[in-house]
Amino acid sequence: MAAYSRLTVNVNSLVPGSEVSTRVHASLPVVAERAMYWGSRDGGHGALGVPAPSVSWYLAEGCTAFGFEEYVLIQNPNPDTAVVALEFRLRNGTGARRTLSVGPGSRSTVNVADVVPGDDVSVLVTSDAPVIAERAMYWSAGSRARAGGHASAGSLTAAGTWYLAEGSTAHGFEEFVLLYNASGDLAHALLTFMRTDGTTRDYPVTVPAGARFTVSANEVDPGRDASVRVTSDRPLVVERAMYWSGREGGTAAVGVLQP
User: Does pTM surpass 0.90?
Assistant: First the structure.
């Protein structure tokens, strides 16, 4: 790659007809993203790569109800098999656990609906060797199957403060803030919606231990463009999902820990 340049790699031309994870090495620091499209490019999603594997990943967003498909994708870049545990946490803090072996240098896919059908769910991924975990979700709109989708790598940590810069409940957008209480105690959280005119709206919520919690921003602060800050007395993982045009498209992103 030339200095200060951009390079595109068409994975279909290199590994056609396959499910594949990717590891990128470079002699100098680079930034790597992945973009995927389907249905004559009627739908698509993109995600930033992660700089290193980890033995734990948190996925706050997740749903197998309301027409959503959800998949957890595991990449094992190690020379040995990784034993990976997935803990699925529901709205009331209960859940299920599944363990799988992921071969060296391979990718594995978990269809969340096979474990937790018809529910909202967060996932904690742990492994005896460092791996990478992402979540992909797809949904239908009208007569179009998989009209939209979004994907995101997991978070490496739970924390007491999160920031979400993007957000809108105007212009036909739906916005949801997804909270996963990764602690064993009840969490008292405060969502502060920061509007474009400088005013704010505070919205307190209580999240059961080990539970997933959804806040509809449209119900809390309708018709607004707003960023959100989430603070909590217990460690949380926070994501934001947005949909538009009758859910013909959508995005999801993990919050950031500090400005």
Answer: yes
For residue 227, the one-letter residue type is S
Per-residue pLDDT reduced to its tens digit, 219-256: 999 999 999 999 999 999 999 999 998 898 999 999 99
Superfamily of domain 159-254: TM1070-like (2.60.290.11)
**Which of 89, 257, 228 is closest to 160 using CA atoms?**
257
Closest by CA position to 169, among listed 192, 193, 135, 147: 193
Residue 28, CA distances (Å) to 1, 2, 4, 77, 107 in order: 10, 11, 12, 20, 26
Same topology, domains 32-153 and 159-254? Answer is yes
Nearest to 123 by CA among 174, 70, 76: 70
> Are 104 and 110 within 8 A, CB to CB?
no
